[in-house]
Amino acid sequence: MAGDTVTQMVARLVAPGALDAERFASQLGTTLVRSDENPDWVFYTFDLSDGPFGDGVLRLKRTGDGALLSLSP
Q: CA dist 67 to 43, 49, 58, 72, Å?
């Protein structure tokens, strides 16, 4: 989100909650674009317009109990 520091963004992202695309899109303040999938994971890409990161990739485990988030400066 605009004006966030790395610490603020990470704190918001690691707060307890559902591991779903809607929650991550809201917390990141962007639209997630589904890019790939396999039997275990669904992959999303996104761009961030303002803040400490420029873009990233989100992987959500199909079972709903895991997520991997990669943020690029």
A: 10, 22, 7, 17
Residue environment code for 15-38, b if the CB has 16+ CB neighbours within 10 A, otherwise e = eeeeeebeebeebbbbebeeeeee
pTM of the complete model beyond 0.85: yes
Question: What sign does the CA torsion over 17, 19, 25, 29 have?
Answer: positive
Contact by Cβ (8 Å): 72, 56: yes
Helix (H, G, I), strand (E, B) or coil at 5: coil
- What is the structure's pLDDT at 4? 75
pLDDT (average), residues 13-41: 94
